[in-house]
Amino acid sequence: MTSYRILRARLGVLATAALLATGAVYAKGPSPEPIEPIKPHRVTHPAKVELGKKLWFDPRLSKSGFISCNSCHNLSMGGSDNLKTSIGDKWQKGPINSPTVLNSSLNLAQFWDGRAKDLREQAGGPIANPGEMAFTHDLAVDMLRSIPEYVAEFKRVFGNDKLSIDEVTLAIAAFEETLVTPNARFDQWLKGDKKAITAQELRGYQTFKASGCVACHNGPNVGGNSFQKMGVVEAYQTDNPAEGRSAVTGKDADRFNFKVPSLRNVALTYPYFHDGAADTLPEAVDTMGRLQLGKKFTPQENADIVAFLKTLTGDQPKMVLPILPPSSDQTRRPQPFE
Amino acid sequence: MTSYRILRARLGVLATAALLATGAVYAKGPSPEPIEPIKPHRVTHPAKVELGKKLWFDPRLSKSGFISCNSCHNLSMGGSDNLKTSIGDKWQKGPINSPTVLNSSLNLAQFWDGRAKDLREQAGGPIANPGEMAFTHDLAVDMLRSIPEYVAEFKRVFGNDKLSIDEVTLAIAAFEETLVTPNARFDQWLKGDKKAITAQELRGYQTFKASGCVACHNGPNVGGNSFQKMGVVEAYQTDNPAEGRSAVTGKDADRFNFKVPSLRNVALTYPYFHDGAADTLPEAVDTMGRLQLGKKFTPQENADIVAFLKTLTGDQPKMVLPILPPSSDQTRRPQPFE
């Protein structure tokens, strides 16, 4: 990615898109395509990952005892909940579409507005968000400290008796870092297996490049590495009040700038956009073409791009469902209805 | 179990309890103890089980797209939700404590009041219950039929193109039948490993037998094989309006008769009783002693019985989290907020 990224930074987005359309940037450098294969994750601390996996699936990190990380980032469903916006404590309607956790370690920041700089910072958010898990960090830590198996496991992993929220988010982030999806058919093609994708899928990729989609959706995560305005050529119509990046920077120029979502596993992560308004890939591709590129794709172009996007589904994380250590008699009981 | 069950049927519950207290029934027959080890489940149709597992974890069987079978019978948490009563569609408060799915194939019937004769009949219940998954069987089947991978998988498993709710519940039941928990330390002891349980745990078992607990909690599931009145010696005080078996039979004599819950994995399935009123095992043991047996256990007896009960935790089902087939463009989207 490096040479491509430097080039892109120099030329600016639109110029790059034009160059991409001519194919001029592919002639040189080690990375002839603007999309790169995902590398498998190498686990360096398996015990920390295993602890993080338990925390990921543990609904006792919510006030109700009903909502876990996996409720809204369901690893059976592309790391998302496939809802327009998520369901929080007491069935509150979430403000924004739940982004997939898959390959999220490759993003430049977390949340649609990038308000968390990394996975660790992100992980603490939903636990304490009154509209999501509705707990507090203190209560979450108290819960874990009341369970002897958790206490022992934190000690084994971190080598101390602290059991702090920092250790909780470190473990969750370590688990999340494992959730990459290598080996998509498109990655096989990138690596030289020219039979890994069909003629239509290849045509879709060529249209995707030639139309300028790759200006934002590039790199190993096919996105996730920049903030861009939703509605460049034409304004995006939505009832969703989220204004994106400006909520973080306070700058008016950042209004409606959102983190470009990854297109990895996009066939699994419907519905699309920050408001979840597009139910299907054909709809999302059509909207993106018109609003971001001023281009109305023909039905054939749309179908080709959709076919290409489906080649970005990688190996889903294969994992054994964790068995959670039971609460002790001292563990404060969940309060779903209070 | 056979000889013990016949004997018990002949003598009646109270007489049996008295006999058990003397140890008289242990002298003869092939089964010297009233509790029997759980046998591992032998899968005869792995493809059906695998399909059932997907359905088990699929929240698209609910109106909201958020609640799956596993939401209330969480296989990370002893097959239960560890809540007093469950959370249903739109955060409705359930009427009764969610029983564990573990070893439920060994029960004489399903639900606390036994209104479903088997797992297959049970499985259809929550999907269409407006207070639980709030869907309809027709909509559930429509959803599955709109997903090509599900269509193909049902065809492979059942050899036809029907894809009916009967096939859905058959597959879920086939999966549930695999959810047995053999190899508890107590089962190891039953099979002759006298070091598998401690002196206190053995003392607890002896008190459990001598006090008459085994009159209802017996067989391989340590319960689950009869309906009994909640509050024999002393009435059970609860705000919960459930009246148990009488809702099924219409007989006044069946009021407050509930299916005796299994004590397998009871350390994981808190809180206890049909209303989930007892948060801890010491509390549940104390209440059962007083209300069912007219016996106030000493703190030592209570602690011993609790120690014994914890030996009933068996090997939890070890399973790879399924990856669900994605919805197609034709799949009706969930309606969590409508």
From TrEMBL, chains A, B:
Sequence positions that bind heme c 2: C213, C216, H217, M288
InterPro entries linked to this entry: Cyt_c-like_dom, Cyt_c-like_dom_sf, Cytochrome_c_Peroxidase/MauG, Di-haem_cyt_c_peroxidsae, MauG/Cytc_peroxidase
Compartment(s) of residence: Periplasm
The keyword Oxidoreductase is assigned to this record: yes
Note describing how the cofactor binds: Binds 2 heme groups.
Top-level taxonomic group: Bacteria
Pfam families: CCP_MauG (PF03150), Cytochrom_C (PF00034)
GO MF annotation terms: cytochrome-c peroxidase activity; electron transfer activity; heme binding; metal ion binding
UniProt KW keywords: Electron transport, Heme, Iron, Metal-binding, Oxidoreductase, Periplasm, Peroxidase, Signal, Transport
Domain Cytochrome c: 47-155, 199-313
Cofactor requirements of the protein: heme
Record PTM text: Binds 2 heme groups per subunit.
Signal peptide: 1-27
CC per GO annotation: periplasmic space
Coiled coil feature spans: none
Main location as per UniProt: periplasm
Residues annotated as binding heme c 1: C69, C72, H73
Protein name: Cytochrome c peroxidase
Species per Swiss-Prot/TrEMBL record: Simplicispira metamorpha
